[in-house]
Amino acid sequence: xxxxxxxxxxxxxxxxxxxxxxxxxxxxxxxxxxxxxxxxxxxxxxxxxxxxxxxxxxxxxxxxxxxxxxxxxxxxxxxxxxxxxxxxxxxxxxxxxxxxxxxxxxxxxxxxxxxxxxxxxxxxxxxxxxxxxxxxxxxxxxxxxxxxxxxxxxxxxxxxxxxxxxxxxxxxxxxxxxxxxxxxxxxxxxxxxxxxxxxxxxxxxxxxxxxxxxxxxxxxxxxxxxxxxxxxxxxxxxxxxxxxxxxxxxxxxxxxxxxxxxxxxxxxxxxxxxxxxxxxxxxxxxxxxxxxxxxxxxxxxxxxxxxxxxxxxxxxxxxxxxxxxxxxxxxxxxxxxxxxxxxxxxxxxxxxxxxxxxxxxxxxxxxxxxxxxxxxxxxxxxxxxxxxxxxxxxxxxxxxxxxxxxxxxxxxxxxxxxxxxxxxxxxxxxxxxxxxxxxxxxxxxxxxxxxxxxxxxxxxxxxxxxxxxxxxxxxxxxxxxxxxxxxxxxxxxxxxxxxxxxxxxxxxxxxxxxxxxxxxxxxxxxxxxxxxxxxxxxxxxxxxxxxxxxxxxxxxxxxxxxxxxxxxxxxxxxxxxxxxxxxxxxxxxxxxxxxxxxxxxxxxxxxxxxxxxxxxxxxxxxxxxxxxxxxxxxxxxxxxxxxxxxxxxxxxxxxxxxxxxxxxxxxxxxxxxxxxxxxxxxxxxxxxxxxxxxxxxxxxxxxxxxxxxxxxxxxxxxxxxxxxxxxxxxxxxxxxxxxxxxxxxxxxxxxxxxxxxxxxxxxxxxxxxxxxxxxxxxxxxxxxxxxxxxxxxxxxxxxxxxxxxxxxxxxxxxxxxxxxxxxxxxxxxxxxxxxxxxxxxxxxxxxxxxxxxxxxxxxxxxxxxxxxxxxxxxxxxxxxxxxxxxxxxxxxxxxxxxxxxxxxxxxxxxxxxxxxxxxxxxxxxxxxxxxxxxxxxxxxxxxxxxxxxx
Length: 950
Hints:
Layout lengths: L6 E4 L5 E4 L2 E2 L5 H12 L5 E2 H9 L7 H16 L5 E4 L2 E4 L4 E3 H17 L3 H12 L14 H27 L3 H14 L4 H13 L3 H18 L6 H11 L3 H4 L18 H13 L2 E5 L6 H12 L7 E5 L10 H8 L9 H9 L4 E6 L5 H14 L3 E7 L8 E5 L5 H15 L7 H13 L4 H8 L7 H10 L11 H15 L3 H10 L8 H8 L5 H13 L4 E3 L5 E3 L2 H13 L3 H22 L5 H9 L2 H13 L3 H10 L1 H7 L3 H9 L10 H14 L3 H8 L17 H11 L3 H18 L2 H17 L7 H14 L2 H15 L4 H17 L3 H18 L2 H18 L2 H17 L3 H13 L18 H20 L6
Parallel strand pairs: 1-7, 8-11, 8-12, 9-10, 10-11
Antiparallel strand pairs: 1-2, 2-3, 4-6, 5-6, 13-14
Pfam family, one: HTH_77
InterPro entries: BTAD, HTH_77, OmpR/PhoB-type_DNA-bd, P-loop_NTPase, Sig_transdc_resp-reg_C-effctor, TPR-like_helical_dom_sf, WH-like_DNA-bd_sf
Protein name: BTAD domain-containing putative transcriptional regulator
């Protein structure tokens, strides 16, 4: 390597060097040790004798100095100018100014997170901490931690990582997400029993979730540990929090209601009368639609109104953005994803949404309905009719046409508000902008020319970096496009004129990039923008132009795992029109599909590796474009691209988003050549979808389409047709067939060296043995599953291994099993894997129901009911209800237990309280499930309150 290619050094795990194209080979152990010693020094000079000791120990051999020089020369050839390795008496130093070191990035992120937390911004703190912790791939300086040169640094970084994990839990509690923090804090307390900070945070988190007794127990357990091991009492923070919990300090329970409203990046300007009137309308009826042309500020007004009205809704305020959906497409999956629920067995996704909302009190904001109007209107109409405590606030360029709809046209900003918005955005571009009298007249003219439309004002204000208000006003006055737009109303014509004026002022290469950006449905990171919008340019050139487009308010930048860039929907529509006029649409679409198919395959592989968390968080932001890519590939009959994408996404979509992509797989099976190497994986994905819906007959028939063929190595864990057949057998009571399948597949995976597959199959061997009530026969498989999972460093695999071992130890060693289940849940939750998180929560609750405090067990089982209610997995919900019945029986709540037993029998489900009576009637399973869940909730509430059996 001889150029100035950017290098990234990674020491938060096995030592790795990467450039723009992937890993860089450094050499054997000694060159790697030399590099590690230089990296530990962080650019400082390391004396030659210390480098000799690091590489060869206390007794370097003859010729070691010469060999050291050879290793230095070799490293120079590998690293080149990107990270110069200099001779500086009395040794060497590695200059990192032009490279990055993950340990430095980690520490910087932790510092910014702590600054954000101190400034009262826990959301920013959480985002920075998630990014920081995602950099870890294992132990710090893993292969050198026992060496003298690296031990202290490894210990320091590990301590900082532990502190960051505690910081993350604090941020979750501050954001009202204490339930997510509890398992992480419990794991921290187990690992650091005398460290007071996580114990104090655990007390607070348990109390915030309504578990006062558990919060107090955490204090008593801390005091006992400190007394036994150190002979001291808890410090003042723990004692003070204990006192506040005892007196039910209201400040401890204060937390924001649930929801997903975005935090405003800038202040809301004006529109106070509109806000007040829309709030009044929301209180008067179940549906308000804000209408107006694009760029009039409908979305901002809706979010502002929703934020001010959130306290009225016990179940929060939820924003569903429809802009990324293809024209005319159904909206049910998007609404379900926004609500964080999944399609339920036996129901369509729309019916699932309605079933979930029916008993809840919330405000649903449905944004940008115009291009999917029939589907949006149909679903909103059902919500209005069937969900009495749900209020809908919609935005659309035209009314929905639903009974009971109150239509509120969003007017342009009056001059005073328009001027205030212009000044705010101008100062964002040029902090010293001042509104003197001459400028005020020009700003008034600008606002008038764009008819007071916020988007037009922002586009004009962004020009303050290079133009004066008078110059902008003059150019708008002279623009021949004014009044000549293609919109149906004058205000739309004015907005088109403002956009066209901003677009025409761009250099040609920026215009081309802007047109290319319109291909993205949900935004993109720099790599995607480069690959799709302008692959002929260099990435640095694309970044420069992208930065200028952001400065001019033509592109919006959002921070996250990676910075992402997108267009407001009005600008995107204009960009697409310009791309069509330039004859670029087809090529842009082709590159968009190709890039996202490639991305899906890389993400699918990444989700099975040690960086699963980072991949999950990044890929969730790409989901809208994965959907768009599949839709375009299928429309163009590009079956190879479509099946590649479908085969790659199950790890992302089915375990983290919902079940929408199962339909993609089902759509392909009749048209894809069965001889295609990815056909078995597509079959497996479609069959798994039927299994998730509880349609076992269809799952079996679909899985058999593969004809016994195995998917390719690396296929998503849940997309093996043979596994679906085995799972159907298992859930229908044929445990022997399932066990034989997974035992044979484990042997195959072991022979193939496929560790991810081996964890999965051994996990199921253990599960089958537990179902056979022979857990001791599954112990060896469970232990091997965990050992192999640890070697993969993949969080989902590690979660599965812990779950398997906990399951077979549940009766013989419940304390150990409970710890394993809690760790399994925390691992799965950290990578957004809702299914494995759910089963770990459930088995932990079931273990507490048998061996722990009944009130705590009742609260845990209530949380599990809520989880499966959102996830929509009836199979797991029925299993949880059986655990509830056992708890009710244990605490002597005979009437409640009998009522739940009757619900189980009515649904034709097994009950732990005995077989059904001879000739016992069965009814509609859905109605029976709803009745059983309602009965269980009420009974568990009484147990949690200490009133069971009263």
